[in-house]
Amino acid sequence: MYFIKNAWLTIKRNVGRNLLVAIIFIVIACACTVTLAIKTSANQLIQSYDSKYDIEASIQLNREAVMKDFEAGTDNLENNQKKLEQISSLSVDEIKNYGESDYVTSYYYTYEFQLNGSELEKASSEFTERRDKRQEDEDNQEADENEKKITQGDFTIKAYNSYDAMNDFISGNYKITDGEIDSDFTSQTCIIHEELATLNDIKVGDTITLVNPDNENLTYELKVTGIYQSSNEDMDGPFQMFSNSANTIITNQSVAEKVTNDDGELRTQITPTYLLKNKDVITNFEKEVSQKGLDENYQVTTNLDSIQNETKAISNLGNFANIFFIITFVIGGIVLFVINMIHIRERKYEIGVLRTIGMKKSQVALKFLCELFLISITSIMIGSGIGAMISVPTANQLLKQEINSSQNEQQQISENFGRGGKGMEMRNQNNTLKQITEIHAAVDISVLGKVLVIGIILTLVGGLAAIFNIARFSPLEILRERS
């Protein structure tokens, strides 16, 4: 108690000298509060963003691996096409086998194939019909008479096995306007686009008949339980009569299995999506599916780049705050040490008197540490308060600059391709992830605790100057120099 009381009296006697030290502490405390608040909030936002969006892994055709076996030249187009067709599609059993993994929380898959319609008119403009007819005639002329020609249907059938697989509805690209999606994913039901429904005067509750394009004897009757609409982004241009998904009929896994079982040669694409536990298991999952026999012509792709791209600005801001914090801490410690060295030299006579009257070196050093500690605690409280007030606007201004820098970088990349930014904009429009544009750098107990620890460390660093000089000075020599 004596040391604290004596230290307080000494501080009041030397206000000007101690005010300089206090200002340095306030600046350091303010800077550390702002940087720690930004860094803590940035890390929390990134963790929250990572937990909000699932890590999705899908298995897709590795076109680079496939192209390695292709032969150059137009004469080899037919052979290359045959090689591509010989690549076996993923089976449901393989998809389920890959899904039985400790790294997977859940999975779903979608079917996609084409069928014709019985008394169901396709949504297409006259120009599109002429183009398709011309293409069909050319294909018929080039087809080998001894080989079965792959026939394309008028309607694209997409079949899902759960609501989680319907990304277009989750993202808002598709929306039900009448009826509903049957929750029973085993019934013979479907939903159709509102443009197709209007064109064929179909209402909820009606039944449509679909036909296998390779075998007209294989027909499937589906009850329409809902009608959906697509967003404006689903059109290629402002003068297009119908949207791209107008001829897309959505059904369930049971219908798809029946169609594929009836005709095993019908070209069907099955796309699986696996929800992984976290981003750290991506590599392990890739190794596991490879060990389970995944064909080298397929590869595992994830949405990790999309997620990290949306948090890139906030991550860069956190890194900047971390670097600024280290610089502030190091420079602040050096400045305090030098200033205290100067102050101790100015108080050399005081040290000599205290040592002469019998005060030990450790007690003299403790007295100076108490003075510095009282100054630091008071300054840290003031600096933390100032830092708390300016942390939010400072963080948002830095984040704004980082976002602008990132956008300029993307714009420059786009211009390098000669698209003037339009191509990149179209790609970003299809991204369902939302970029972080605001940060609330709150100063909580954790931040204040860290600032207090920093203040104590800097106090000890500054106190080293006192300890160094007190241990070096001889009281008799100090008094002799004074005389």
3D structure, described in words:
The chain is α+β, with helices and mostly antiparallel strands and 483 residues long. It has 3 domains: 222 residues, no CATH class; 75 residues, no CATH class; 170 residues, no CATH class. 57% of the residues lie in helices and 16% in strands. The protein has 17 helices and 10 strands. Strands 1, 2, 3, 4, 5, 6, 7, 8, 9 and 10 form a 10-stranded mixed sheet that branches. Strand 6 and strand 7 form a beta hairpin. Helix 12 packs antiparallel against helix 14 and helix 14 packs across helix 16. The longest helix has 56 residues. The chain is elongated, with a radius of gyration of 36 Å.
Spell out the blueprint of helices and strands.
Blueprint (H helix, E strand, L loop, with lengths): L1 H12 L1 H38 L2 E7 L1 H5 L9 H10 L5 H8 L4 E15 L7 H17 L12 E6 L6 H5 L2 E6 L9 E5 H7 L6 E6 L2 E16 L17 E5 H10 L6 E8 L5 H10 L6 E5 L1 H7 L1 H35 L1 H9 L4 H56 L5 H8 L15 H28 L2 H8 L1
Parallel strand pairs: 3-8, 5-7
Antiparallel strand pairs: 1-9, 1-10, 2-3, 2-6, 2-9, 4-7, 6-7
Helix pairs in contact: 1-14, 2-12, 2-14, 2-16, 12-14, 12-16, 13-17, 14-16
